[in-house]
Amino acid sequence: MAIPVAFSASSSPTCTVLPRQGLPGILGSPRPLQWTKKERRCRRKIGFMVTAKFDLKPPPYALNSLEPHMSQETLEYHWGKHHRGYVENLNKQIVGTELDGMSLEDIIIVSYNKGDLLPTFNNAGQIWNHNFFWESMKPGGGGKPDGDLLKLIERDFGSFEKFVEEFKSAAATQFGSGWAWLAYKANRLEVGNAVNPRPSDEDKKLVIVKSPNAVNPLVWDYSPLLTIDVWEHAYYLDFQNRRPDYISIFIEKLVSWDAVSSRLEIAKARAAEREREEERKKKEEDDKMADGETAEMYVDNETDDSEVE
Amino acid sequence: MALRRVSKKSIELGLWHSHGLVREFSTFSLPNLPYDYWALEPVIMTEIMKLHHQQHHQSYVTNYNNALVRLEHALTMADSPTIVRLQSAIKFNGGGHINHSIFWKNLSPVKELGGEPPKPSLGSAIDRQYGSLDALIQKVNAEGAALQGSGWVWLALDKERKQLSVETTADQDPLVTEGSALVPLIGIDVWEHAYYLQYRDVKSNYLKNIWKVINWKYASEIYEKECP
């Protein structure tokens, strides 16, 4: 919602100046933020300064449509109170700050602050996590994945059953509040802003990770594919202390494997693009070294140096 | 009295180390509540008390004991990787057992001690440091409300400096993880399982109401023991 205020010449509408690919300075390489399309709220009107606000996005189904596996009452509180609260609180926190106008993902990365969490992290992370969680489920969900997703699961976990076992175990053993994730890992050892929980030279792998409170795999530069919320508010009305039962029902009756598959395609495309980018850069550096000239000098090669996408 | 099956078990593992000594190992057990499950109504409903005690606390005790048995074995085998790997389960479940054991004593029915203000020595220490009991309660509630995720909020006594403080710990970390001289006087569980069935997402209402069943007599006794 745009709130017109007197235009100040000293302020810069940063949201319109930032390139769509996010914050190159923080992570080293521009990350195409595939998830950003609906999370970004930034409009500019000539003559006015705009305050960007996040909206509470509804789940892609009615609040009663996951019954009897997840009750309407749970959705009413979980989405209607908890998720809404995170949105309202973040909007209050960012007003008039440098975070105002940034995409949600960028706010998460900046607020993560290499593990020394800034006050906006909890709200920003939780907004993103809950959007992702609602979209990880669907009425009549469950069953088994197919296609590329199933192939990768079988490759990286041995079998679908073993994957399920490992995912359930991660979700059950996240002490305290948090989340369990299936993610696509296509990065290198160094993740810049955080400590990589799975450092290894192998990438383009499916991994299961768990995270406390509001943390999510974006901070490790992984691509999340599926999540389950294991904060107690996610299951206490329906299952009380029986978290393992909740996890089983989630896998058997709620997971939207369609959503997971399309997220995998995006993640693979992102990884491929990043690989091409890195190869291009490597070739440039090799060419420069071969010429024996410094980076500042004109280098005669066929590649266009420009970073403009 | 809330009735429960409680048995103090003593396990002889028959473990031998190089000098051929048998180690005996005592496990922990779930303490009885000093009141009935319904006795804290309407502040904390019966169903919460039952689940909290019989399910959550019991499962901390069970898992704590399991981890200790495995630790005992790993110690005997000098299996350092396992010894180290067990630490998080011990901290979590042992912490859960410690914290909840204190919590049940921190509470008392309204008809008995619940809500009655602290005795003079603790009362005047609170007034000296915080201005008033109300001010302390506001501070505890603010810290409890601000805690993100799961954890506890404490009124602590630093037994070396003889000073009170308000602390928070994450998950089931016991108070001593915030400072080795800290003694818990009052701990309030702000995990969602402590209030969700009754108060839903409004943690602040739980925090406002719980003071009606706080047992200040217990807190005062601990205080007087450390600050005679």
TrEMBL record, chain A:
The keyword Transmembrane does not apply. Residues 271-291 have a biased composition (Basic and acidic residues). GO terms for molecular function: metal ion binding; superoxide dismutase activity. Keywords: Chloroplast, Iron, Metal-binding, Oxidoreductase, Plastid. Residues 53-137 form the Manganese/iron superoxide dismutase N-terminal domain. Its cofactor is Fe cation. Its EC number is 1.15.1.1. It is found in: Plastid, Chloroplast. It catalyses: 2 superoxide + 2 H(+) = H2O2 + O2. GO terms for cellular component: chloroplast nucleoid. Residues 299-309 have a biased composition (Acidic residues). It holds the Pfam family Sod_Fe_C. Residues 271-309 are annotated as: Disordered. The keyword DNA damage does not apply. Residues 145-263 form the Manganese/iron superoxide dismutase C-terminal domain. Belongs to the iron/manganese superoxide dismutase family. This is superoxide dismutase. It comes from Carya illinoinensis. The lineage of its organism: Eukaryota, Viridiplantae, Streptophyta, Embryophyta, Tracheophyta.
Automatic annotation (TrEMBL), chain B:
This is Superoxide dismutase. Residues 27-108 form the Manganese/iron superoxide dismutase N-terminal domain. Keywords: Manganese, Metal-binding, Mitochondrion, Oxidoreductase. It is an enzyme of class 1 (oxidoreductase). Its EC number is 1.15.1.1. It is found in: Mitochondrion matrix. Destroys superoxide anion radicals which are normally produced within the cells and which are toxic to biological systems. PANTHER family: SUPEROXIDE DISMUTASE 2, SUPEROXIDE DISMUTASE [MN], MITOCHONDRIAL. It comes from the Eukaryota. GO terms for cellular component: mitochondrial matrix. Belongs to the iron/manganese superoxide dismutase family. Residues 119-221 form the Manganese/iron superoxide dismutase C-terminal domain. One of its GO terms (molecular function) is superoxide dismutase activity. It comes from Carya illinoinensis (Pecan).
